[in-house]
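Known limitations

Structure tokens in this collection are predictions and should be treated as such. Users comparing against experimental data should check residue numbering before alignment. To illustrate the layout, the record for tRNA-(Ms[2]io[6]A)-hydroxylase is reproduced below. The input appears on top and the generated tokens appear beneath it.
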Amino acid sequence: MLIPEVEAFLQCQTPQSWIDCALGHPEELLLDHANCEKKAAGTALSLMFRYAEREDMQQYLSRLAREELRHFEQVTALMKKRGMRYRQLSPSNYAKRLQKHIAAQEPDKLIDTLIVLAFIEARSCERFYRIAPFLDEELSRFYTSLLKAESRHFEGYLDMAKRYAKKPIDERVAFFAQIEKEAILTEDAEFRFHSGIPQPRKGSKRQVQTIRT
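Generated tokens:
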């Protein structure tokens, strides 16, 4: 079951067309998932250095970075088991679409950054939930096991935004909620874990199938 707080936070569900495309691109799904976990760890470490004076943030982000790296190891182990080679992929436009609206000056920059990270974690949680029923038993079980962690990360980032803000963040959350919705419902030429609606390819017929080992 999708965590109710995540479902209430997001303004739209993942489109079925994204799920269909993910099932047709199992290697890209796992590859970009691995890259997302590694980037999430890197982001947490970057924030630790940028805001070193915030001791409680240091402790939280340290634990989060370790958990994200553990997830990276688990995804790459699954890939190796399935004969897939790890490599870098070009990132999706999803994060860029949110990040370009982050305030340039502090303290608003920190608050916006934490809100954006909360949306990224919430969307990851929602996507794991939506696609898990269509996957093979091993991968479905793994993605379902990630739901609590992604939800916990979402809540952690959002709680920090509320704690450090000097005023209520409801309006800013609502603003980024709309940006995030637009990012999910915008067409993207390349499939990625956080990409929007897949653009139809000329002359191609999409076939939906359960991913099997």
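For this record: Confidence is low (pLDDT under 50) at residues 203-213. The beta strands are 187-188, 197-198. Please report discrepancies through the issue tracker.
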